[in-house]
Amino acid sequence: MLTRRLLPTHRLAAPSTFLRTLTTTQAFQNAQSRSPSLADITPDGAASFDAKLQNFRAKVAAAQRQRGQQASASLDKDPSKRKGAFSSLIYGTKEGQQMDKEIELSFSQVLARGKYVHSIVFHEVKPDKVDEYVELVGNWYPRMAGMEENKVNLVGSWRTEVGDCDTFVHIWEYQRYTGYHSSLHNISQHPDFPAFDKKLKTLITAKKTSLMQEFSFWPTTSPRSLGGLFELRSYTLHPGNLLEWETHWRRGLKARREVMEGVGAWFVQIGELNTVHHLWQFADLEERKLRRERSWSVEGWGDTVHKTVPLIQTMRSRILIPMPWSPVQ
């Protein structure tokens, strides 16, 4: 029941806010009890989605450049950190190194893999209790995520519209496993938790939780509001194939990202083992279809599919709609 890197959406204009920080209450003040649905999406929203996406990516790039400039300034102040001419010949020019660094920051924050633990929670809600569930969770989750002492961030909350209908999906972020334990303990000690937990149990038929880590080459997005819908693709791999999967997807993501917008990718460490979750965002179902088809024209994608399909036991696709309080919209 806990969460992730969440910056209020109104702060995204400042490049520095693209660093992961704890959630603030501002991002969750407008939670509503009405459950959204596919019917809220119109077929003419692709242009608006693309414009918001380009704006979001521009801000991310600006934040990366700012960090690069700060790193360069630090080197200028401390000559002992500079490498010699021979090193430049071997490892490339300063400009080339900076370009490589920006590419790496875009797709592969290596240290992120061990810095955060994510949980993915599935609630199967009774069909006649959906509105009550939305009201209950829509008030409780933002409240818990907004309390700094809980040290937990909500990545997002969604309702399944195609797939396991009336199943709600929540992804939370913690500071390693110590943060996970700390968050669970703090929230369980809240005076209102027993009432929340008791009520929740009357609204759902099942609850499933797995603990995951994000792939090092695909850090989870910061909060944003692009609109549209999401697709959660879940893969059960043959045991022992996770490293090979990561190797191929590290190359394939660059091709996919040219035509599709990823939200995050995680592999389960505790729970449904050998499971990988990829989360994508699209303007609508037609755009999803077109962009997936367009992927095949991008060099490298066909090879990724050819090499990853044999690694898969089962796969599942869910179409999700974000909840009003979800930081990623």
From TrEMBL:
It comes from the Eukaryota. It holds the Pfam family NIPSNAP. GO terms for biological process: mitophagy. GO terms for cellular component: mitochondrion. Residues 124-217, 230-327 form the NIPSNAP domain. Gene3D superfamilies: 3.30.70.100. InterPro entries: Dimeric_a/b-barrel (IPR011008), NIPSNAP (IPR012577), NipSnap_domain (IPR051557). Belongs to the NipSnap family. PANTHER family: NIPSNAP-RELATED, PROTEIN NIPSNAP. This is NIPSNAP domain-containing protein. It comes from Glutinoglossum americanum.
